[in-house]
Amino acid sequence: MLQPKKTKFRKAHKGRIKGVATSATSLNYGTYGLKALEAERVTARQIEAARVAMTRFMKRAGRVWVRIFPDVPVSKKPVEVRMGKGKGSPEFWACRVKPGKILFEVDGVSQSIAKEAFGRASSKLPIKTKVVGQLIK
Question: What is the predicted pLDDT for the residue at 60?
Fold first, then answer.
């Protein structure tokens, strides 16, 4: 699974995801892409599950680019622990996704295969998405 090799701080504030994406809003690598329509945290497990679903459906034809990276540590306290006593330990890594960001890109497959692959990947993600690319309305 994806996670940073090294970070400046071990724990991060929760923060809020507001506004729309300014970077990674257009296709840079592939012919078709999966664009986020909502703001949400996407975990490293969800990114990996979506990637595997796409590559399995495409039967490893074409090329897949993952345009997001989980760089935010999400901490969690153990079950049945009383309030206080500090912040919990980091449990998993997540990526803050804003609406308009391209999550995945594919190239080397037909439009119908790309649409179906993105549909399967979208079902693994906690946000609404849409397929963008050449000749897709």
Answer: 87
